[in-house]
Amino acid sequence: MLSKTLQEALNKQLALEAASSQAYLAMHSWADIQPGLQGVADFFDKQSEEERVHMLKLLKYINERGGFAVVPALEQPIITFQSLKRVFEEFLRHELQVSESINDLVDMALKEKDYATYNFLQWYVSEQIEEERLARTLNDKLELIGEDKSGLYLFDRDIMFYRNQQSGTGGKGH
């Protein structure tokens, strides 16, 4: 059974995962109306779906452990961006925030000697290592490209390859 404190913390994480899904959906929508960024739009569509899966995994875990998972009300995410570079900077910032929150949860689970929750959270720890690496890689690539249109074209064309390479799926999806 989850302690009240851990249940509340897990529900906060659930809300953060839901907010991430919404933020990435907003990035998808922004990229979708930009000329030549369909690959980026598709990338953020997949990212949004993935974050929703993370949220649902938490929801099920909280309820399975005798807690009550709360479906959160969400604030409007950022919906417009000055540039593609800003989108990916926000992507990295968001992933770092999620990692910090997961680390806090792991620490809390250990302090409460809730080893089941500690074990459950290890999947999120591993997932965040991949997500941070992916976000950093894509930011680095955009930094190298700068404003070069042909580089941006190739970045958009190959972005799903980067996502699949980072997740270790070799092009088979995440």
Automatic annotation (TrEMBL):
<keyword id="KW-0409">Iron storage</keyword>
<comment type="similarity">
    <text>Belongs to the ferritin family. Prokaryotic subfamily.</text>
</comment>
<keyword id="KW-0479">Metal-binding</keyword>
<dbReference type="Pfam" id="PF00210">
    <property type="entry name" value="Ferritin"/>
</dbReference>
<dbReference type="InterPro" id="IPR008331">
    <property type="entry name" value="Ferritin_DPS_dom"/>
</dbReference>
<protein>
    <recommendedName>
        <fullName>Ferritin</fullName>
        <ecNumber>1.16.3.2</ecNumber>
    </recommendedName>
</protein>
<dbReference type="InterPro" id="IPR041719">
    <property type="entry name" value="Ferritin_prok"/>
</dbReference>
<feature type="domain" description="Ferritin-like diiron">
    <location>
        <begin position="1"/>
        <end position="146"/>
    </location>
</feature>
<keyword id="KW-0560">Oxidoreductase</keyword>
<keyword id="KW-0408">Iron</keyword>
<comment type="function">
    <text>Iron-storage protein.</text>
</comment>
<dbReference type="InterPro" id="IPR009040">
    <property type="entry name" value="Ferritin-like_diiron"/>
</dbReference>
<dbReference type="InterPro" id="IPR009078">
    <property type="entry name" value="Ferritin-like_SF"/>
</dbReference>
<dbReference type="InterPro" id="IPR012347">
    <property type="entry name" value="Ferritin-like"/>
</dbReference>
<keyword id="KW-0963">Cytoplasm</keyword>
<dbReference type="InterPro" id="IPR001519">
    <property type="entry name" value="Ferritin"/>
</dbReference>
